[in-house]
Amino acid sequence: TVETVLRDVLMPYLDELGARWEQGSASVAQEHFASHVIRGRLAGLARGWGNGRGPKALLACPPDEQHDLALIVFGIVLKRGGWRVEYLGANTPMLDMIQVTSKSAPSLVVLAASTPERFEAIVPELTQLAYLAPLVLAGAGATEEIAQSTGARLMTEDPVTAAEHLTGT
Predict the structure, then answer these.
(1) pLDDT confidence bin for 135, thresholds 50/70/90
(2) Fewest C-beta in 10 Å: which of 28, 93, 141, 160?
(3) Strand, coil or helix: what is 124?
(4) pTM, entire model
(5) From its phi and psi, is residue 54 left (phi > 0), alpha (psi between -120 and 50) or beta?
(6) Rounded Cα distance, 52 and 22, in Å
(7) Are the beta carbons of 42 and 72 closer than 8 angstroms?
(8) Residue 10 in contact with residue 158, Cβ under 8 Å?
(9) What pLDDT is recorded for position 52?
C-alpha cells in the first residue's frame, strides 16, 4: 500500500539521508536533490487533499523550520483516510497560522519542527493556537514539556502510524 511504502521505505530513507548529511557523507546538494525529487512525488499523492467532507486538519511548520516532508506524508495518509488537509508548509509565520486557524476552524492543527528551539521560540502563540483548536506538536523538536506547557498533545509515532490512528485505519 501507499502507507506501507511511506512508512517502511520513504521515512527510513529520509532518516538515513539526514544522518548521512550530518556525518558529511552526503552533501547539501545531494540532500536537496533527493528532497526535491521526493517532494515532487509526494505532491502528486497530495493532489486534492483539501477536497471532501471529512474533518479538516491544518498542517504547517513554525518559523525557521524547513523540514516538512514528514508532515506532507502525514497529510497524505490523513487524506487517504477521508480527512481534508489544509497545508501551509514550511516556515509559516505564527500570526498567519493563528489567523487561518481562527477562520477555518480545523478539527486538528499539527505543527512539526526538527528542533525544540523552533517551538520554544513561539510558546505564547502555541498556547493561543491550542485555545483555538486541538493542537498537536510533532517531529524531533516536539517535547512533552513544551506540549504540556502550551496545552498541546505530543505526536510520538511515525507520521504514517499517527495518521492511521486518527483515521481509524
Answers:
(1) very high
(2) 28
(3) helix
(4) 0.95
(5) beta
(6) 40
(7) yes
(8) no
(9) 85
Q: Comparing 32-36, 42-46, 55-59, 164-168, which segment has the lowest mean pLDDT?
A: 164-168
Using the structure block, give the residue that is written with the C-alpha cell 516536539. 142
Show the cell assigned to 71.
508532515
Mean pLDDT of 152-168: 94
Residue 71's H or E segment, with its range, is helix 69-80
Cell of 44: 502528486
Q: Residues 52-68, buried b or exposed e (16+ Cβ, 10 A)? A: eeeebbbbbbbbebebb
Question: Environment class of residue 163 by beta-carbon count within 10 Å: exposed (0-12), middle (13-18) or buried (19+)?
Answer: buried
Per-residue pLDDT reduced to its tens digit, 40-60: 999 999 999 999 899 999 999
